[in-house]
Each structure stands twice: as structure tokens, then as C-alpha cells.
Amino acid sequence: MEFDLNRLLRPHIATLKPYSSARDEYSGKEGIFLDANENPFGSITEEVFNRYPDPYQKDLKARIGQIKGIDPSRLFLGNGSDEAIDLLFRAFCRPGVDNVILLPPTYGMYEVSAGINDVATIKVPLTADFQLDVPAILAAFNPQSKILFICSPNNPSGNKLNRTDIRTLISSFEGLVVVDEAYIDFSDEPSFIGDLDHHPNLLVMQTFSKAWGLASLRLGMAYASAEIISILNKIKPPYNISGLTQAKVLAALQDLSSMHRMTADILDAREQLQSGLLKLPAVHKIHPSHANFLLVQINRPKEIYNELVRHKIIVRDRSKVTLCEGCLRITVGTPTENKQLLEVLSQITS
Ligand SMILES: *Cc1c(COP(=O)(O)O)cnc(C)c1O
């Protein structure tokens, strides 16, 4: 399959002249900076934030590139993965004309972002065991289909999707295939970053919001060809990653072992939670999870959800979502939190 990025790109983006920031013209670190209308005296906060941050996030990208084994020219950083999702719509999907393919049940932002950008969605549900329905997806593509969103491990089902099926779809689709790996750190599955060299139409997304424990800093990553990444960089708001975020994430990246320990603790806690839940007669089924949450099929999900809220325990009611009928999605908490959840559940379901 010949992939033609220029056919995919909206024509006005190809010719767009991007914003040029003050720091584009001079990139040295030393100097008297009278070019960006900043406050020269500093800031009233404890740490100093008076200067605009690096619009290219060079130091941060160099470090992430080193860890992930990829050249920084193939890495985009967004204000959460959600910014990358939105920019993909703006770059590739003509409002009212193009469409994207979604595979429910899946992450809600793909559809919301499509809606915001006035882009139609074609939905091809996963199979009953939450795998890709490859023939149905292939049949759904049309010339206006620009992006296929695949989430693996999938939210809200928690399972990983069959690798060969994903590869078949990447090779068969003329549009862009996004593989969203928000939960990859909880899985034994290797990342699709390793497939980028063979597939110019592949984009892999990861995030600091889950395993890294940095959801509040808002940092998402997108990996793709240098050509696709340069398009995202061209249309992003110039200072999309705050200086605070750049500094804090760079510091966090010094300590990979703590992150791995925390992830292992979450996986232990997930096993404990799962066996506790399975002892409750009200629980019918727990779907196999490669993520930090469990999709739990339970009696009277709506009432149990409400009872839990009354006990100030908040889970996600997914019982009305395609293929998730009767299910609550429960994020793995600390061992203490999980124990409290199990106690309350056993009270209210007995
Ligand atoms: C949580 C999540 C994200 C993360 O989004 P951020 O904007 O980076 O916080 C992305 N994709 C999926 C499927 C998620 O569940």
C-alpha cells in the first residue's frame, strides 16, 4: 500500500505559514532578552516563571528520545494526549467532508474531538471478546476515511488487542492509524514504536498521565515519521507545554526505577483487587486486564454505583456502553483504598 501523506493532509495546512515566536529568531540561552514582552523582574511565586518556555521542548525530547530509542524529530509533545488527538483532526480531517473510524467501546475523547471538529465517525464495534473485527473494519474504510483510532490496551475493556490484526489494519489502510498506548506500561506487550520504520502511516501515542503518575502536569507523546511530526509541530500553539511541566517531567525521567516500582505495585494491587472482587457473589465476570483498571460485570451496576458514591467511593459506570452492559470500570487504587472498596461492596451487595 503506497501511503501518500500529501493526499491525507488538508491543503490549507500544507501552505500555512506557522507562528514564529521571539525565540525562533535567537536560540541562545545567555543574553538580555527584550524580545518577548516578559516581566524582567521575575515572578512572585517561589520558583521563577517569568520567561516563556522552550517551544520545542529540546531537553525534554532529547531525554525521552534516549529512553524510547527514537530520534526527537519523530516525537511530538502535547498538552496531554488529548491535544495530539485534536491536532490530528485539524491537520487531516476536513470538517463536514472526511470521517474517522472508531472501534467502540473505546476512549471517549476520539469521538468528542471528532464532534468539536465537525468530523463524522464510522463506528465498527469490537468483537464480543473485545478484539478487532478486521473484515468489518476493512469494509468500513472509504476514500474520506482519514484516521483509524486503535486503543491497546483498550479503555474501557482493559485487554490488549491482537498484534497481527493491528499490523494487518496498518498495512491495509491508506489513512493514518493511531495506536493509543496510554496503558502500555502496565502490559507485557511491546510498544508499536518499533513498527514505525516499516509503516509511514502509523502514529503511536503514549502519556505521562497513567503509569508515570503525572496526570496533572498534562504531557502526552506522539511518535510517527518526521514528516507527520513536523505537521503537528507546525499547527500546535507555540508554548503548548509549560516550563513547569518540562522541568518536572525532565526531573521525573531521572528516576525510571521508582516509576517501574510503582507500576509493579499497581499490578500487585490489581491482582489482590481482582481476587477480592471475584469472591463477591454479585460479581459475574472480570475482563482480563493489561491496564490499571478492571472492567467488572456486576448485579445492579447503576444502584451499586450510586451506593458507592454515597460512601464517597467513585468508580465509572460503563453499564450503558456498547459491549460493557452491566459493567463498572474500577481503577486500581492503593491497597488500603481497594480494601475499603471491597468492604463497602460486600456490605451493599450482601
Ligand atoms: C487516560 C487516557 C489517555 C491520556 O490522556 P492525557 O490527555 O494524556 O491525559 C489517552 N488515551 C487513553 C485511551 C486514555 O485512557
What report would you give on this structure?
This protein is α/β, with parallel strands linked by helices. It has 2 domains: 250 residues, 3-Layer(aba) Sandwich (Aspartate Aminotransferase, domain 2); 93 residues, Aspartate Aminotransferase, domain 1 (Alpha-Beta Complex), CATH 3.90.1150. Helices cover 37% and strands 15% of the residues. The protein has a 7-stranded mixed sheet with strand order 1-7-6-5-4-2-3, sandwiched between helices. A 4-stranded antiparallel sheet has the order 8-9-11-10, covered by helices on one side. β2, α6 and β3 form a beta-alpha-beta unit. α5 crosses α6 and α11 packs parallel to α13. The longest helix has 23 residues. The radius of gyration is 22 Å and the shape is globular. The protein starts with a helix and ends with a helix. The model has no long low-confidence stretch (mean pLDDT 96). The structure holds pyridoxal-5'-phosphate. Pyridoxal-5'-phosphate binds next to α5.
Descriptors for this entry?
single chain; alpha/beta; Aspartate Aminotransferase, domain 1; 2 domains; seven-stranded mixed β-sheet; four-stranded antiparallel β-sheet; 13 helices; 37% helix; globular; binds pyridoxal-5'-phosphate
